Structure prediction request, 262 residues.
Amino acid sequence: MIAGNSAIVATGMGVRRGGRWLLRPVAFGMAEGVIGIAGPPGAGKSTLLATFATLRRPQAGVLEILGHDTGNSAGLRAVRGRIGYLPGRFCWAETMTAGEFIGYAAYYKGMRAADVDQALERLGLTESAGTELSLLPPDVRLRAGLAATCVHAPALVLLDEPLNGLGDAAAAETIPVLRSLAPTVVVTAGSAAELTPWCDRVLALEGGRLAELPPHGAGRPVPLPAAPDAAPGRRRPSVRPLAALLPRIVLGRMAAGSGAGV
Ligand SMILES: Nc1ncnc2c1ncn2[C@@H]1O[C@H](COP(=O)(O)OP(=O)(O)OP(=O)(O)O)[C@@H](O)[C@H]1O
Prediction:
């Protein structure tokens, strides 16, 4: 089943903030792979990512994460421990060492000291574990944030503009790390050009609409299927099978086995 394989399934989902639709009601899914969301400042990327992280609720429609409806408390309980979320403009606990920072995150996620050691090793932080975050270069600080985000081995990782502030060389070294964090990784950036070279799939968010960009950024964006506008605050039940709402381009890509479609 398509919906069963998708980490994120939105059905008629709309997101409002500041009195306007940042995302007009739309249907889409995100399966395994690295999915980029590009958009200009203020388009709503951070708000959408926080919605996927279940920190905000959509104002219309249904959002399923890892097979659970986030509109009820049982679904939220089931899914929250399987998400790793690293907000943008993250305020680092600058006087903590990298090891303390990751250990702190691990404690609140119910993980053990061995999991901290494993995360430090996996992110290449063993030698930096005793250094205060404020003294580490930006890419190493980012890796500490990623280790804290992923210490519980989440199935879905959400990263808000993680490459911001990194130079080209550091970004190039970090990209394979980002790609390896979880079966599904969703990452945002200010422009599609920052994402198309290394994401399996890129969506553009602008003016309240999501559009699918063609692979490698060549060609015209394809708008995702809109749902009729819903009244703010009213949840729209999922009554149509998702497959009926999928754009042809995504179905075609799935048939080709890209591993990154809906
Ligand atoms: N605290 C707030 N109260 C009300 N509206 C807000 C608030 N913060 C943001 N907004 C609205 O939400 C919109 C989207 O903000 P968001 O941070 O999600 O966008 P973004 O695409 O991530 O932008 P950026 O790249 O600048 O972070 C903003 O344009 C603004 O209209």
The pocket of adenosine-5'-triphosphate is lined by residues 17-18, 22, 39, 41-47 (CB under 6 Å). Confidence is low (pLDDT under 50) at residues 229-234, 236-262.
